[in-house]
Amino acid sequence: MVSLYVTIDTEYESGFTAKHGPGSRAANFDRAIRGATPDGDVGVFHQMDVFDRHGLKAVFFVDPMPALLWGTGAVADVVEPILKRGHDVQLHLHTEWLALAGEANPLGASKGPNIKDFSFDEQCELLELATGFLMDAGAPRPIAFRAGNYGANDDTLRALAAVGIGYDSSHPPGLMDGSCEIALTADDRGPMRRHGVVEVPIGCIGDAFGGLRHAQITALSYREIVAALRHARDNGQDSFTVVSHGFELLCRQRTRINRIVANRFEKLCGKVASMKGVETATYAARPPRLAGEQEPVEVLPATPLLNGTRMIEQAVANALYG
C-alpha cells in the first residue's frame, strides 16, 4: 500500500500585500486562499470539496506569518475550515512577511526571502513564533514543516529538531537548481533521518528531456502522476508526496480558472479514489515511514511519449492561461 501525501501549500500572497498595502487582507484571501473568479472559486475550499467528494484526505501546509500584520484571525480563517472538514494542518513558513511587518518583525532588522537566510538561533525563533501563531489560530501543535520556496538548509532541520517538529518536506529531488540548500542530492528520494528529523522528499519522475521532474499538479500531467503512483505501488514504495498550492488551479494572474489544471486535479482525485494499493494519508494520522536500506528510491523512468504529451499540454495551458 502506497501512502499518498497530497500536500497543499496554503498561503496568503506576500507580494500582493507588498504592492497593495496592509489593507489588502480580504482581497488577498479571495485571491490566494478562496481562489475567487467570476466563474467560481477554485481555491482551498473548492479543493476540499473535491477531496471530500472522493473520500480523500490532504495535508495543508499553512503559513501563519501574515499574523504579523493582521493577527491570528487571518490565519484562523484558513485553519478552522480545513480542520472542520477533517484534513491535516501542518506548518509552512514564508519569511517574506518579515519585510512587511515593520516594528512587529521579531528579529528587528533581519529579513530575507527564505528561512535558510537566517542563523540557527533565528530559525528556531521563527519556527517557535510561527508554531504559536498556528496554534493560536486553532491548529494542533504541528509535527511537520515545509519551507516557503523550499528554501531550507541543514540548520533548518536542526532548528526543527530543537523546537520539537519531527518531519520536514522541503527537499525536492526534481528541483535541485531551486532554493533548497539541504545538503542532499537528487538520489535522496525516500524518507530518511537527518539532523534529528525525518526528511520526506517531494515525489518525482524521470524526464525524457533531462533529469527529474517534480510531482506537482502544475508540473506533471494526469497520466504521468498516475503512472508514478502505479510505479511506486508496484515497486514496494511506502509513500509518495505530491505538491499543490491553494491557488494552483488559477491562471498565473490569479484572475481566471486554468481549466486544464482544474480538470487534471478533479480527474486525478477520482482516479486515486479507485486505485488499488494507493491511499491518501496525513502526517497527523499516518506519518511517512523511513525508506529503509534501499537507496535511492527508484522513480518512474523517463517515458518520451508521456513526457512529450505533457509538454504539449503545458504549451497549450501556457498559451491559454499564461
What's this model, at a glance?
With 322 residues, the chain is an alpha/beta fold.
CATH overall fold name? TIM Barrel
Order of helices and strands: EHHHEHHEHEHEEEEEHEHEH
List segments where confidence is low: pLDDT < 50 over at least 5 consecutive residues. none
How big a fraction of the residues is strand? 5-15%
Structural class: alpha/beta
Number of domains: 1
What's the architecture, going by CATH?
Alpha-Beta Barrel
Shape: globular
Distance between the termini: 38 Å
- Fraction of helical residues: 25-40%
Query: For the residues shown, what is the average pLDDT?
Result: 96
Radius of gyration: 19 Å
Number of strands: 11
Quaternary state of this entry equals single chain
Major beta-sheet overview: 9 strands, mixed
CATH C-level class is: Alpha Beta
> What's the tally of helices?
10
Secondary structure: elements and pairs:
Blueprint: E1 2-10, H1 14-20, H2 25-34, H3 44-53, E2 59-62, H4 67-70, H5 72-84, E3 88-93, H6 120-136, E4 144-147, H7 154-163, E5 167-168, E6 192-194, E7 197-199, E8 204-206, E9 212-214, H8 222-234, E10 239-245, H9 259-274, E11 278-280, H10 304-321
Parallel strand pairs: 1-2, 1-10, 1-11, 2-3, 3-4, 4-5, 5-7
Antiparallel strand pairs: 6-7, 8-9
Defining key terms:
globular, 10 helices, TIM Barrel
Give a structural overview.
By secondary structure, the chain is α/β, with parallel strands linked by helices. The protein has a single domain, classed as Glycoside hydrolase/deacetylase (TIM Barrel), CATH 3.20.20. The protein is 37% helix and 15% strand. It contains 10 helices and 11 strands. The strands form 2 sheets. Strands 1, 2, 3, 4, 5, 6, 7, 10 and 11 form a 9-stranded mixed beta sheet that branches. Strands 8-9 form a two-stranded antiparallel ribbon. Strand 3, helix 6 and strand 4 form a beta-alpha-beta unit. The chain is globular, with a radius of gyration of 19 Å. The N and C termini lie far apart (38 Å).
